[in-house]
Design goal:
The complex is a heterodimer of chains A (102) and B (473). By secondary structure, chain A is an all-alpha fold. Chain A has helices at 2-21, 29-39, 44-52, 58-88, 94-99. Chain B is α/β, with parallel strands linked by helices. Chain B has 3 domains: 1-78; 82-273, no CATH class; 288-472, Rossmann fold, CATH 3.40.50. Chain B contains 18 helices and 6 strands. The chains are: A mainly alpha (102), B alpha/beta (473).
Chain lengths: 102, 473
């Protein structure tokens, strides 16, 4: 039964994703991609559970710790670089003023 | 309420924040806030997970997060905007590998407990390893191509399809053996490592035959796969927030992949398997109707200035060459000079210009070009005959008229920016060779086209200094 519940959520999330992204203007495709890339770092939750589970298996701890490090790079790098990009998108008129503060 | 309920409740909140964040990322005015909201969701998900009953020791978590945070921060700070495609490819790869390791760790847990996995758990572990592994090595290979460490040319060898087919069959066989044995015994263990190895090889053989010009499609696809890998990891540890977030990323990647394929008028299968561009020279040497013949007519920076000085409507068509020579700042300077001179300047962006979707927009934004000045292909093309000058900066296939006229051209049917319809076309190009995709550009041979050879940045600077001299004198 749990399997069905997970599949159910999977399918609904898929349709939601299509609805959310379908109308994004092409200007924003790169930030969208790196921003959604950061979201895929959610696997960090699984990595934490593996690294923190003290089940006596060195293998699990090593794998979990490596996974935590990689997922953290994905999350932090992804969000920050997206923010850096989006900070540069400016309207006309706003460009001159803020140029000095960069 | 017990802790587990509270954690799951927080996961729902995190999922909502991801959805809102993605929605806001789709609009220029809200995009930055959307990204912050989605990162807040991530923070919540991470923090509440630390309270989970399963987590008993924190030392290794601290080590992992510490290392990851330092590297992630350094990457995000130091990366140049021209290198964003490589960076995204690399981060994709890390995410994919992390999901693979989550699946592997679950297998390790089952082994350590001395039990075997159910058919369901076994299947999703194989899926997490497969998708994560393909994402990891595929992304690394794409990173190599994008950063110029590996050749951008498609790599084909005889029997490639056969090898790929054999790999897929081997993977299915190993996966089935693993699932049937529940990962237990020698058979189960060997089957698991076979899956792991095949997934890694498959990632490379899948990306190998794809040409550099098709990289926007590859990056979108790998982005989608990294989401699906997280999704599979979510099934492994039966965690809803992984499934929701992973699935959202998976579908958004699929949509971008479809958009990119449409922009090149090709099917995904054609992009993935045709080794596009490797036979381009053979195709264009045979003569056929619609082909343009002529010669390359060079122009100097001084003469370019004379043409531009008289122009009233100018359109700039940037491509990857602009990124390579870091010319975006001097392009903006030139645009400002042209506007001060009374001309109207627009930037025409092709959906697949550059090495990832929207790459040019980011670079021009970095150089402070306001986004209202950037126009999409479909809105600029009808106005193209009214343009006095089109400046093509390091763009190639996306302005090649062969796509519209020459049925024998490998890019026939791909929508292009009709730069050739402008009164005069000035093409900035490093040298006389064919571009990244290896296809001859017939635009360069047209009677109204002039070639401004040299590094794009240096060429533009010479034109800008002419404008400055005029303003001073």
């Amino acid at each position: 039964m749990e399997l069905m519940l997970l599949l159910f959520i999977f399918v609904l999330a898929g349709f939601l994703g299509f609805e959310l992204i379908a109308k994004v203007p092409s200007q924003l495709h790169t930030p969208l991609m790196s921003g959604s890339n950061a979201i895929s770092g959610i696997t960090i939750v699984g990595a934490l559970l593996a690294a923190g589970a003290d089940d006596g298996s060195t293998l699990t701890t090593v794998l979990g710790t490596t996974a935590v490090a990689l997922a953290t790079i994905n999350v932090i790098g992804g969000y920050l670089v997206t923010d850096r990009m989006l900070a540069m998108f400016k309207k006309k008129g706003a460009t001159k003023k803020e140029e000095g503060s960069q | 309420m017990n802790t587990e309920t509270l954690i799951n409740f927080a996961y729902i909140v995190a999922s909502i924040l991801f959805i809102l964040g993605l929605k806001m990322l789709g609009r220029q005015t809200t995009a930055r806030r959307g990204n912050m909201i989605s990162s807040l969701g991530m923070l919540i998900a991470v923090v509440v997970t630390l309270f989970a009953r399963e987590i008993v020791s924190f030392q290794w978590i601290a080590v992992g997060i510490g290392i990851g945070a330092v590297i992630g921060l350094a990457c995000a700070r130091l990366i140049k905007m021209t290198s964003i495609p490589e960076m995204v490819a690399l981060l994709n790869g890390f995410g994919g590998l992390a999901s693979l390791l989550v699946g592997w760790a679950e297998y390790g847990k089952i082994l350590a407990a001395g039990s075997t996995s159910s058919v369901f758990t076994g299947t999703v572990i194989v899926l997490a390893v497969l998708i994560g592994g393909v994402t990891f090595t595929g992304s690394l290979y794409a990173f190599g191509k994008l950063s110029g460490k590996l050749s951008g040319k498609p790599v084909m060898f005889s029997g490639q399809q056969f090898v790929n087919g054999a790999l897929v069959l081997g993977l299915i066989a190993a996966g089935v053996i693993y699932v049937i044995n529940g990962g237990g015994g020698d058979m189960g263990g060997q089957a698991f490592y076979a899956c792991l190895a095949i997934a890694f090889i498959l990632g490379i053989t899948l990306v190998m035959p794809i040409g550099g010009g098709d990289m926007p499609v590859v990056i979108s696809m790998l982005n989608s796969l990294s989401g699906l890998a997280a999704c599979a990891a979510g099934f492994v540890i039966t965690n809803n927030v992984l499934i929701v977030a992973g699935c959202l990323v998976g579908t958004s990647g699929v949509i971008l992949t479809i958009i990119m394929c449409k922009a090149m008028n090709r099917s995904l299968a054609n992009v993935l398997f045709s080794g596009f561009g490797s036979d381009a020279t053979a195709a264009s040497s045979g003569d056929s109707e619609g082909q343009i013949t002529g010669e390359l007519k060079p122009i100097t920076g001084e003469d370019s200035f004379a043409v531009l000085e008289a122009a009233r409507n100018v359109v700039v068509v940037p491509g990857y060459g602009m990124a390579v020579s870091q010319a975006q700042h001097v392009v903006r300077e030139l645009a400002e000079m042209l506007e001060n001179n009374g001309a109207e300047v627009r930037f025409a962006i092709h959906p697949v210009a550059g090495r990832m979707p929207g790459h040019m927009n980011v670079l021009l934004a970095e150089a402070n070009v306001p986004y209202e000045q950037l126009v999409e292909m479909d809105s600029i093309n009808p106005q193209m005959p009214m343009m006095d000058v089109a400046i093509v900066i390091g763009a190639n296939d996306v302005v090649n008229p062969a796509a519209a006229r020459d049925k024998s051209s490998p890019i026939y049917g791909m929508p292009i920016i009709n730069a050739h319809e402008a009164n005069t076309v000035i093409c900035l190009k490093r040298g006389k060779g064919a571009g990244f995709s290896g296809i001859e550009n017939q635009l360069f041979l047209l009677p109204n086209t002039r070639m401004l050879y040299g590094d794009a940045k240096a060429s533009l600077q010479s034109v800008v200094s002419e404008f400055k001299a005029m303003a001073d004198g």
